[in-house]
Amino acid sequence: MAPLTDEDYHSILTTELPSSSDPILQKYLSSRTALINEEYKQRSVTERQNKADSSFRQALSPIAKAACRIVDRIRDEEHHHVTTTPLTPDAMIKPKSWQIIQRLPKGGLLRAQMDALALANVDHLITLALETPGMCLSSSNGNLATAEARGDTTRRVEIRFRKNDQKSEQSIWSSDYESGTFVPLTNAADDYPEGGRSGFSKWLKARCGVVSRSDDSITTTTPQTEKTESFSSAEGRADSRLLRGMLYYEPIFRKFLRHLLVQLMEDGLSWSELRLTFPLDYYRTGSESPEPDSDQLFVVIGQEAASYCRQATTTPDDPGQRPPFWGFRIIWSTTRNQNQRSIIEDADSCIAAKMIWSDLVAGYDLADTDTDALGRSLTDMLPELFWFRKQCALEEVEIPFFLDAGGGIDGAGECNLFDALLLGTRRLGNAPSLYRHPRMIEAVKDKRILVESCLVPGKDDISNHPLLALIAQGVPCALSLGDAKEHAGESAGLGMTHQFWTALHACESLGLAGIGSLAENSVRWAAFEDQPPESWIRDIRAASVGSGLKAKRLKEWAVEWERFCLWIVTKYGDDYGEGGDGDGDGGVTASAN
């Protein structure tokens, strides 16, 4: 979609965009105030004990119940030996519980930003960039001849495709390097002054935002302190230009997407909803100029999706090994730190893409966490969001909201929860503060809204993670991957197996049945197809007894779940069978109703 002209934007601003005094916004704000007041009243009431729905656990087959008891015993055994053998999925010999969770049919991945997935697979991405002809590296504000310069995150370093390599004799690591000159990426890697290609890959990963915490050889400096410090995480230091410069060049993007789909399926996922964060610069093969719109990006996504669907196979003779592949869709995500005009242009582009690629575009989100100082609140963006919904209605397209809300420590992010619910979000991303709002919890349950939660070992105190409190209060939840900042680190590449394995060990009462319910919820709340709000809620209520595509997928997942449970009983039943403790029937289950 071409950028709006000044005339077009002025017309939208004066005739289409609702003002703060517009009756529709006044009615919305009145409802918002009433909801907030009701929330404050309910907070003062003594908390009621909430019992999570147990429909999933009650429906367990005898084989599934036996599998749950076996897994309980295996987990308890591993906890008993934790003082001598540290429980870590990074160990060369994985614990039995890890091997079990690897085979779990995990349903759908409902929240994962493409940039985060690229960051988690940055080694593979760098390899693809080095293998792709024409990829070059540049520094626009000085050479990188010294360790201090290479660690200076204020220096603008870019990776781009260039047709001609006339400057191949230059070295970006030399003091006579001309600023802004692109040099072949392979030359830059081979000539890296601290270890050649191996050192270059380590440096590039650090600039992108990922590095081993045990590695203290890479340093970064800031102009405020001029002190050298060790890279330990992506937060505040990641350079998205480098990551995106590699990822969104067509030859690399195609190969990376194929690799990603294989990886997701091998991780036990049948379905994914990937978030692409716009605006982004996408380059076609052999082009030095970005595309003016997203058309060619979606052409490639559509082609690769169709190709992989044809190639994907299952292995029914090896129960629990690999689930069926149902496909994936894209959630269009717009960064919150843009001005009004930019968000309107991007939202307009989303609608244009939906009209052409209806099967691929599943919904709309607003990127950047609530803690981002530059991110605008949902209340501030109400005019743009109401305009977006009106345009969707005029163009007769269904683009539901799947919003992130409830983060932050100053209360501003928590207010986004009220807006997300009133705007009709179908799922809530993260929502770490939701458990503190009893009235909001009731509203989330009444409206059949799912919370997509990400566990970040090493960052969160998993035993006190909000997910467990939400499950205990009957809120429907599913596990997901976080955004690029929180997902970076040593365990990032372990995917959803790590999420489910962490959940299994974080809460004794959750058990295999509890994480099975989380997986089922990810299928139940997946956006397999376009649905108006009424049929969306109807199919969630009906679950597997319905007649639509969602019911079909839930039945298919249930078959995989039974195969998985049978595999557990067959493999571990002799050693962990009925001789152990536990009945597998108690504890907390992720609510679905």
TrEMBL record:
It comes from the Eukaryota. Residues 215-235 are annotated as: Disordered. InterPro entries: Ado/ade_deaminase, Metal_Hydrolase. PANTHER family: ADENOSINE DEAMINASE, ADENOSINE DEAMINASE 2. This is Adenosine deaminase domain-containing protein. It comes from Podospora pseudoanserina.
